[in-house]
Amino acid sequence: MMISESLLSVLSFFLCACLFKVLFERRKKPKAHLKPPPSPPALPIIGHLHLLKPLIHHAFQELSLRYGPLIYLRIGSEKFIVANTPSLAKEFLKTNELTYSSRKMNMAIDMVTYHNATFAFAPYDTYWKFMKKLSTTELLGNRSLHQFLPLRTRLVREFVQTLFRKSQAKESVNLTESLMRLSNNVISQMMLGITSSGTDSQAEQARALVREVTQIFGEFNVSDFIGFCRNLDLQGFKKRALDIHKRYDSLLEKIISDREELRRESKVERCEDGEEKVKDFLDILLDIVEQKDLEVELTRNHVKSLILVRVGSSYIDCCLSGCMKFCVN
Fold first, then answer.
1. Angle at 10 between CA 6 and CA 11, to 5 degrees
2. pLDDT bucket at 320, cuts 50 / 70 / 90
3. Which of 35, 277, 283, 325 has the most CB atoms around it within 10 Å of its CB?
């Protein structure tokens, strides 16, 4: 009888402790897990995918008129918070920049950009901070910009002279293509030391591949959003991404190998005449790869991925083209 009473006391104490823990967790839960923003009704499996349109920003604007500036959406098994006002965008991208600085990579980005070697989609860590510092000091720093000033001046002068000759001959000019060629030549020279002089040039081949990369990065892939389709290649994305990666890797390997051979030859020449050549971004990256005492060890794949991001940039020519259209109109 004494044993059963003792056992009953232990069980009662255990049950009371469990009940107290459950009640405590329930009271604590609303504070730990905030309610998500307003959300439209979702469908099974696909979530809110049916509400999106080809012009996705139009769909977001229509949803914000009904559900408010901050919306919770579920695309397949992936969850998103959509901010539709400048103030909220600033809150995410500037005020809380470090919290939201890491970006999720889809299948195409992961495969084409050498997995975690890319800078644009790298998580906020030592490598990301190192590459940001390197980009701002070596590529966009005052010393580098000053070194490449004669190059930019010469290319702009040639561009203006071409426009003048076309004007004198009363020939039409595709300003968008001309501005694109100008900015591409500047970027290619600063990045790789090569100029786009035709459709067969290495710079033009690299930019053509980057255009394919940009396109596949922005396309919708079912495998990225629907959980049970993750290992399936229903749209052929994996095959396309592998093909682009192989072609780009082959081209970049040739450019880097040619530069390494040139660097070996130039070291001998520099020893003879004592002159220092202006370094482009590829030279700087290869110098860093050769160093072994840095906080971050760069590999050949890091170099390729960094060039992939920058050599295809088209923001400058878009801005210049827009400014010219504004001036004309």
1. 115
2. low
3. 283
The whole-angstrom separation of Cα 212 and Cα 112 is 11
Residue with tokens 């469990």: 18
Q: Looking up tokens 């290869």, which residue turns up?
A: 286
How many other C-beta atoms can be found within 10 angstroms of the C-beta atom of residue 317? 21
Report the first-to-last Cα separation within the chain, whole angstroms. 100
Q: What are the residues whose beta carbons fall under 8 Å from the beta carbon of 161, sequence distance 6 or more?
A: none
Which of 71, 38, 43 minimizes the C-alpha distance to 56?
71
Q: With bands split at pLDDT 50, 70 and 90, how would you rate the model's confidence at 315?
A: low
> Is there a contact between 40 and 67 (Cβ–Cβ < 8 Å)?
yes
- Answer for the pair 318, 183: CB distance below 8 angstroms, yes or no: no
pLDDT of residue 64: 93
State which H helix or E strand residue 79 sits in: strand 78-83
Q: Which long-range contacts (CB under 8 A, 24 or more apart) does 96-105 make?
A: 98/124, 101/128
Q: E strands along the chain, which residues? A: 70-75, 78-83
Amino acid at 165: R
Tell me the residue type at 69: P
Residue 211 backbone phi and psi in degrees, to 5: -65, -40
What is 39-58 written as a DSSP string? Answer: ----BTTTBTGGG--SSHHH
C-alpha to C-alpha distance for 203 and 192, rounded to whole angstroms: 8
Q: Assign 244 to helix, strand or coil.
A: helix
Q: Which domains does the chain have, with CATH numbers?
A: 34-100 (no CATH), 115-328 (1.10.630.10)
Q: What amino acid occupies position 15?
A: L
Is residue 308's pLDDT more than 80?
Answer: no
Q: Is the separation of the CB atoms in 320 and 129 below 8 Å?
A: no
Pairwise CA distance, residues 218 & 53, whole Å:
14
Lowest mean pLDDT among 73-77, 140-144, 198-202, 261-265: 198-202
Report how far residue 299's alpha carbon sits from residue 159's, in angstroms, rounded to the nearest whole number.
37
| Those residues with Cβ within 8 angstroms of residue 98's Cβ, 6 or more apart along the chain or in another chain | 124
